[in-house]
């Protein structure tokens, strides 16, 4: 995790936090209609410019977990009913669900339900994406060829464990979506490539050992 810091934007009914360490500038916040987020304005985010419900809805669009909120009514962000990994075209892995990411501190609340994990191997903020795939010209269109063993239920905790100098292991009820949005794989344990070299993306095939991938 980089040494950049999080910024808090207080409101009367709800507070918003932006964690620069996780932001990959997808723009779901800035493109949202209304005055909650306005680029070039100081402050950039004004929680009082929208209802609490709208603030929650817009913040939860953030795929990286860089945005989070504290609703003063006590209403927390709830985990989605399904744990999902979406393989992004030429980009990271988007995770949503009841996430238990190894090593994540309590000061990163957005990562409890949303995260963008590096799969090009070049991020300087591993295991999270920092857009290094753009400079590295990482190319993988997000097709998924395997179906997995299937699921008997959905939801529940999803443990995310980045293995030292290796893949990321996911344990829990899990659905993997191809970049097209298609439900491609379902199961309870997956080993996903994060070195960028696997010939069976998004799954690990041991190529991290061949390319001497380093997770630190």
From TrEMBL:
One of its GO terms (cellular component) is cytoplasm. The keyword Iron applies. It holds the Pfam family zf-CDGSH. Signal peptide: none annotated. Transmembrane segments: none annotated. SMART domains: ZnF_CDGSH. The keyword Cytoplasm does not apply. Residues 102-139, 182-214 form the Iron-binding zinc finger CDGSH type domain. InterPro entries: CISD, Divergent_4Fe-4S_mono-cluster, FeS-contain_CDGSH-typ, MitoNEET_CISD. Keywords: 2Fe-2S, Iron, Iron-sulfur, Metal-binding. It comes from the Bacteria. GO terms for molecular function: 2 iron, 2 sulfur cluster binding; metal ion binding. This is Iron-binding zinc finger CDGSH type domain-containing protein.
């Amino acid at each position: 995790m980089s040494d950049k810091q999080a910024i808090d934007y207080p409101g009367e009914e709800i507070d918003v936090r932006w964690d620069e360490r996780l932001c990959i500038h997808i723009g779901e916040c800035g493109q949202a209609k209304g005055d909650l987020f306005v680029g070039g304005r100081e402050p950039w985010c004004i929680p009082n410019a929208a209802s609490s419900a709208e603030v929650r809805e817009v913040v939860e669009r953030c795929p990286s977990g860089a945005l989070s909120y504290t609703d003063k009514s006590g209403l927390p962000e709830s985990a989605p009913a399904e744990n999902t990994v979406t393989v992004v075209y030429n980009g990271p892995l988007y995770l949503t669900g009841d996430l238990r990411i190894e090593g994540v501190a309590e000061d990163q609340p957005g990562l409890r339900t949303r995260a963008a994990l590096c799969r090009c191997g070049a991020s300087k903020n591993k295991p999270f994406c920092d857009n290094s795939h753009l400079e590295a010209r990482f190319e993988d269109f997000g097709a998924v060829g395997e179906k997995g063993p299937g699921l008997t239920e959905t939801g529940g905790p999803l443990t995310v464990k980045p293995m030292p100098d290796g893949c990321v292991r996911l344990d829990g009820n899990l659905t993997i979506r191809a970049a097209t949005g298609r439900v491609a794989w379902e199961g309870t344990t997956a080993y996903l490539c994060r070195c960028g070299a696997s010939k069976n993306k998004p799954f690990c095939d041991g190529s991290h050992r061949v390319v001497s991938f380093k997770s630190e």
